[in-house]
Every structure is written in C-alpha cells, then in structure tokens.
Description:
Elements: H1 12-20, H2 25-28
Amino acid sequence: MAARHHLIDRAPSDVWTVLEDERLYGTWVVGTSDSRGEQGDWPELGSS
C-alpha cells in the first residue's frame, strides 16, 4: 500500500474541525466526491 505524508501547519483543533464535518469528506479524501450518513452522528463511536 502506498503512503503519503504531508505536514499540516495548523492547530489540531482546526484539523479536527475539518475531519468532523462529513460534508467536507470529499475535499480531503482522494477519489471521493460525496459521502452520506448511514447511522449515528459523526464522529461518535459506531457512526458511519
């Protein structure tokens, strides 16, 4: 599996703000243009 590392020069809270917003998933996951919730509230345990 290929891996790529990139330093994000932002505060951890800024990074988590983006990661927690399911609407932005397609902007930071390569090859993904959309996402939809299946169950639970992201990012709670067991959500998808």
